[in-house]
Amino acid sequence: MKLGLVGLGKMGMNMTVRLTEGGHQVVAFDQDPSKARSIAGAIPAASISELVKKLEGPRAVWVMVPSGAPTEGVIGELGGLLAAGDVVIDGGNSNFRDSQRRCAKLKEKGIHFLDAGTSGGVWGLKVGYCLMVGGDKGAFTRVEPIFRTLAPKDGYLYCGPSGAGHFTKMVHNGIEYGLLQAYGEGFEILRSSEFPLDLKAVAHLWNQGSVIRSWLCELAELAFQQEGNGLDKIKGFVNDSGEGRWTVQAAIDQNVPAPVITLSLLARLASRQDESYSAKVIAALRNQFGGHAVEHEGQK
Question: N or C: less crowded end of the chain, CB within 10 Å?
Answer without folding.
Answer: C
